[in-house]
Amino acid sequence: MEEKKPLLEVENLKQYFKVSKKFIVRAVNGVSFNINQGETYGLVGESGSGKSTIGRSIIRLYDPTGGKITFDRVDISGRLSKKEEKHLRINMQMIFQDPMACLNPRKKVLEIIAQGLDIHGLCKDKKEREEKVYKILEKVGLSREHADRYPHQFSGGQRQRIGIARALIMNPKLIIADEAISALDVSIQAQVINLMKDIQEETNIAFLFIAHDLSMVKYISDRIGVLHLGNLLETGTTEEIFSRPIHPYT
């Protein structure tokens, strides 16, 4: 029997930004962790610790300075072929912190959610496309009537649900949730977290959950990594990190 490989392996990831000739910001400095299929890995740290940068490097919004990222058995840290890029764009999705900033205000919700399907040609016809969107809207607790509205007609929590629906419709293996609930008020945060947990149970999707709020991370994560100034200080199961933190920063 072959050994089950993690869905995502990050080895010694470095992400540096050159600010000027002499000054380089080492945003991420040799971070390693992995995520298994169907698991939620919580990445915690305060502002400026490099956690969002890690998420963006993994999904290749940035080109990593160094290290290796293996996703679904494919090395995605170097230059991507068209085939690798398509595989990555379909199987890895991101939910951003500010749903309003990443939803096109001029497009109706139906168009926004179906964007990935359109780009990758995943629907035979208009009817199939609409059905897929309606189904996913219902899954995230919105109704099909909502498909005809614009982003500004929704509350913050509803907009975040639209962001989740847009990620889910691709049926990805991994979703990176970058501070996905920090802009919402607490009662809505719990609803969105529970929604993510339900979806995970149903689809066996993996989450990289990036946040600075430990209580939320504790509730949703199977394992946690603690990040400080671009370095991963410790990583372990949620129980280990909360009952026996080793590093004083934790």
Topology of helices and strands:
Elements: E1 8-18, E2 24-35, E3 40-44, H1 51-58, E4 66-71, E5 74-75, H2 82-91, E6 92-95, H3 99-102, H4 109-120, H5 126-139, H6 156-168, E7 174-178, H7 186-203, E8 206-211, H8 214-220, E9 223-228, E10 231-237, H9 238-243
Helix pairs in contact: 4-5, 4-6, 5-6, 6-7
Average pLDDT, to the nearest integer? 89
What is the general shape? Answer: globular
Please report which band the strand proportion falls in: under 5%, 5-15%, 15-25%, 25-35%, 35-45% or over 45%.
25-35%
How helix-rich are the residues, as a percent range? 25-40%
Largest sheet: 6 strands, mixed
The total of helices stands at: 9
Q: Please mark out the parts with pLDDT under 50 across 5 or more consecutive residues, or reply none.
A: none
List the helices and strands in order: EEEHEEHEHHHHEHEHEEH
Q: Over all CA atoms, what is the radius of gyration?
A: 18 Å
Class from secondary-structure proportions: alpha/beta
Number of strands: 10
Strand order of the largest sheet: 6-7-8-3-9-10
N- to C-terminal distance: 38 Å
List keywords for this structure.
250 residues; alpha/beta; 6-stranded mixed β-sheet; 4-stranded antiparallel β-sheet; 10 strands; 37% helix; globular
